[in-house]
Amino acid sequence: METTNKPLEKLNIFSFKGVQMRTFHLTWMAFFLCFFGWFGLAPLMTVIKTDLGLTKSQIGNIIIASVAATVVARILIGKLCDTWGPRKTYAALMGICSIPVMTVGLVHSYEGFLLFRLAIGVIGASFVITQYHTSVMFDKKIVGTANAVAGGWGNLGGGITNMVMPLIFAGVVGLGYLPASAWRIAMVIPGVMLLIFAFVYYRFTKDTPAGNFEELAISNPKAVKTKGSLLEAMKDPRTWALFLAYGACFGIEITFDNVAALYFFENFNTTLATAGILAGAFGFMNIFARAVGGIVADKVGNKYGMIGKGRLLALLLALEGIGIALFAQSGSIAVAVITMLSFAMFLKMANGVTYAIVPFINRKAIGSVSGIVGAGGNVGAVLAGFLFKSSSISYSQAFIYIGVAIACIAAVVALINFDKTRSVVPETGALETAEA
User: pLDDT for 404-414, tens place per residue?
Assistant: First the structure.
């Protein structure tokens, strides 16, 4: 039995009671599994490279494709959340994307693999639904924390995938399959998990604490009317400031995940195992760092309002940019690790703060705002990816350029007034979680 149909004012991570907490747990679990499907191929690329005869340039194109497809997908999925509802949108996304994840093993050419990688990249839009769904389930006092914890725990899927997929691959090889077949069979497992969870999500969640969109539409047709919400979101300069900010934090996080191990291996002559552990430490900070950002943002917001949240985000971005520039100039592995963990903390906190602001931009277009801002993260990753792909720029130089760019974005964010309100609050109490 549901105890309330209103957004919750507290986040008890040990509770599954009520539709709000049940949705909170199922949405971060769904995002976690989506990461398995999205990045499941990454730790198997050495085997795939040999099997398909891929060149370095082709692998670079595949990496870029895996995040580029998500840019458009996040914007479209955000709009669907506003109009169709997060429950059906998430279930459909997992169900549809499970197909290319399960069947990517059917390809035998670079061109085919590239197309499948593009298709699989669509599942990265799952983040937008996760943030939308937690935004409507929690009160404005705690929504930043809820969004940050759900996002951070879901992001852990990216790091754990790097550990688990090689084990699944090894298990398939242990059954007597050749490596060329084993990687193909291994990808069936995350695909099946996604398909099963699509039904679980559809069955056990609701669009809002007050009910699903179709139920609310019957009782109050105006409550879920969001026609034109994408255009409204695009007209607001605050949306684009957050678009830049998320590109500067999450976009760089994805990029660093891709190059960190190679950077440590080549610059400090570590073993591959050591380089992997150091790179893994960066990703594993998601278990707490993003949540810390959301918690601090809620406290700052409750005391200083949206202006305080905006300045907190600008400060964290500035510290992140400085940290990355210092990391690029590290002369020893000890200094490199210390500076990496420092800028990682600021980066992941900035992720959390960004989505502690998103629900307050436009209450009738949470999905659209979330989608545009989420797309910004992938645009940042694509642009940074081209820097690291360049043969004329070293990795250290690329990090310095990125650090300077982030500092410039921090200055832009600092100049934006996040306190202004343009939107009309929906008539259903279920969605009045974060009016400014």
Answer: 999 999 999 99
pLDDT digits (tens, 9 = 90+) for 253-306: 988 887 887 788 888 988 767 877 788 788 888 889 999 999 999 999 999 999
Same fold, 18-206 and 227-423: yes
* Cβ-proximal residues to 422 (8 Å cutoff; 6+ apart), any chain: 232, 236, 362
Report yes or no: 348 and 408 within 8 Å, Cβ to Cβ. no
Q: Please tell me the CATH code under which domain 227-423 is placed.
A: 1.20.1250.20
Token pair listed for 24: 């909170």
d(CA 19, CA 29): 15
What residues contact residue 110 under an 8 Å CB cut-off, 6+ apart? 52, 53, 54, 58
Structure token pair of residue 278: 């150091």
Contact 63, 174 (CB under 8 A): no
Name residues whose C-beta falls within 8 Å of residue 391's C-beta, 6 or more positions apart in sequence.
Answer: none
DSSP designation for 88:
H
Residue 435 has what pLDDT? 34
pLDDT in tens, 38-54: 988 888 888 898 999 99
Query: Top-level CATH class of 18-206?
Result: mainly alpha
- Give the domain ranges of the chain: 18-206, 227-423
Q: What is residue 348's three-state secondary structure?
A: helix
Task: Answer yes or no: are the C-beta atoms of 376 and 251 closer than 8 Å.
Answer: yes
